[in-house]
Amino acid sequence: MDYAYGDMQILTRELEWTLEANSAQSTTMLLMPLLNALDVKSCLVLLLISLLVFDFWKSKNAPNFPPGPWGFPFLGNVFIGFDCRAMDEVAAKFGNIFSLRVGYDKIVLVSGYEWVKEVLVTQGDYFLDCLISPPFKEVFQGNGISLSSGYKWRKQRHFTAFHLKAFAEGKNALEFHIQKECLYLCQSFEEQQAVQTRILAAPILRSGSIGSPFNPHDILNRATANVIGCFAFGKRFDDNFIDFQSLLLNSDNMFIENIPQIQRRKDSQAAFTVDNLACITVDLFKTGTQTMTDTLQWALLLMIKYPNVQKKVQDEINCVIGKWRQPCLADRASMPYTDAVLHETQRVINIFPLTAPRLTSRDTALAGFFIPKGTLVICNLSSVLKDSSQWDKPDQFYPEHFLDDQKNFRKRKAFYPFSAGKRSCVGEQLARNTLFLFFISLLQKFSFSAPEGLEPRLEDQEQVKTSHKPSQICVSLR
Ligand code: HEM
Q1: How does DSSP classify residue 122?
Q2: Residues near ligand 1 with C-beta < 6 Å?
Q3: Where are the beta strands (DSSP E) in 9-145?
Q4: CA dist 113 → 253, 384, 420 (Å)
Q5: Are strands 369-371 and 129-130 parallel, antiparallel or unpaired?
Q6: Which residue has the higher pLDDT, 375 or 210?
Q7: What is the pLDDT of residues 204-241, one digit of tens each?
Q8: Which of 286, 425, 429 to mutate to test the pocket of ligand 1 (most atoms within 8 A of CB)?
Q9: ipTM
Q10: How far is the CA of 294 from the centre of ligand 1 (A)?
Q11: What's the family (predicted)?
Q12: What is the C-alpha to C-alpha distance for residues 121 and 118, in angstroms, rounded to an integer?
């Protein structure tokens, strides 16, 4: 009988199925008497052994995958604290590229300037997609910037970056709004002092007199949120309750005014919808406000810890701006020391120690290791900011890291607080401008000191981040 090639294939597959079915049948038949002969205890032991074999097989790494510490069966390395300190400890043992396992998800961690740059910049295109956990997936539906991937992310990011740039370069737009907010910020610090002094039944705050301690967190938070609010809604929040949704829909300003323009776009994959715009706006507030607030709060604490640095910054302010003129962005070029202090603050405080996990979009090689498509990769930014091959005094607050021999400001290639590459911080410029103007406005007007007996504990950074208790400060009018 003649068979066509297709028929031959079908016949071969049928034969394979019959053989498989027969072998399964015969295995079961062989095992049945064995299973019957076993008691419950032995069955449990057998079950455990099979689970362990399954675990061993599931957690097996691809050949030449980065090494890592031993993980518990089924759980992996979940008990390793996923903070930069724990990561540094593992890196010290396994090298700058190592792997961890959470359940059966493999995560590659990358440390040190050389390899973090390789992942974020040189091979950046393969490490762009982000992992979204189910609750966020449900709420954001792949909208916004920090939780989206692929084409949609590219479009949303480009759209936001374009408007942030336009806001920064528009005729005095950004600078004008930040300067206005600086006035409110200084006023709030003064009011805080007034409240404190009234409580203490003391007379008004006079130049040089030190007020009682307070925590500046909420004041700073409101100020930074207002800068983002000005970008998103075209107006600052007052202290009353804000109906976010009505603001979003009734705004007549830079970013939100683009809704009609967005709706006209025909690109359905890029999802230019009002919902998405709302997600982007939430994203900007979520990622922008706390980071700027923490940085400013840390900057003030560092000025308290290092009064000689505070004095040098104030001397530079006196020299370049004086006591009465309002600071502007153009002053930065003439204030290398202050610029260096702000950069060094961002280097040592470690606001964003680890990047979000990124999924590799194809098989890649890193330092000779093989990283298969779909692996999670996290970069340790803190290890770059403290990389001893890049910084003279990595563990010290040393503004001279950013000054050359002539005391001019010096850019540093390993300055990664905003990350690097295509998924780096989209609000970097806005953040840098806001931090500069807020910081010098405060130091132009006030001097900062620690409450008696409550020196800022800078070494205990994690604690300061979670509880703002040690962040009490005292201010005096200059
Ligand atoms: C001192 C202030 C800031 C610091 C230190 C900071 C740091 C960072 C870092 C390290 C990333 C990358 C995170 C990662 O790779 O997982 C990032 C992303 C991002 N930042 Fe910032 N940021 C700051 C301020 C801001 C501000 C003011 C905005 C908004 C106006 C903003 C919006 C974003 C957004 C939307 C992303 C996600 C970018 C993307 O996924 O493409 N950030 N930021």
Answers
A1: I
A2: 145-146, 157, 228, 283-284, 287-288, 291-292, 295, 351-352, 355-356, 417-419, 423-427, 430-431
A3: 97-102, 105-110, 129-130
A4: 40, 5, 11
A5: unpaired
A6: 375
A7: 555 556 667 888 888 998 899 999 988 887 777 765 54
A8: 425
A9: 0.99
A10: 13
A11: Belongs to the cytochrome P450 family.
A12: 6
